[in-house]
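Quick one before lunch.
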Amino acid sequence: MRLSCSINGVRRDIDDVAGGESLLFTLRERAGLAGSKNACEQGECGSCTVYLDGEPVCACLVAALQAHGREVVTVEGLGGADPVQRAFVATGAVQCGFCTPGLVMTARELLQRRPNPSDPEIREALAGNLCRCTGYEKIFDAVRLAASPAGESA
Ligand code: FES
Ligand code: FES
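Model of the FE2/S2 (inorganic) cluster complex:
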């Protein structure tokens, strides 16, 4: 089947999408967008987080055809210089980097909702994003930095 949707602001028509295919598979294997990572495929790790009509979703749990006619934004759509991305780099919150795309997407959505989140709010927002490397402290530092006035120039 054909999936027609907006991906990172560009209208895409993707053919031969199977009914049971996940949005994550389609993005990575058919659309050439490998930034969203596939770690668990069970909705447990958050590494595949994308925005679907502005809401963060685990792309591994969304059928690709559910995105028909809708807007998908992946980490590639941020362009690499988003303040949250810069804050992750500035604070050393990236080690192997596998979790980073999903964390960045989740953190951005938090900061849009809560521009000055408390530490418990940051912890709660990021609870669905697993990282095996960092111990999370630098990730929390990155979100705090992105939320601060210094975040814009990080
Ligand atoms: S790969 Fe989707 S939540 Fe882990
Ligand atoms: S930096 Fe390696 S899993 Fe998070």
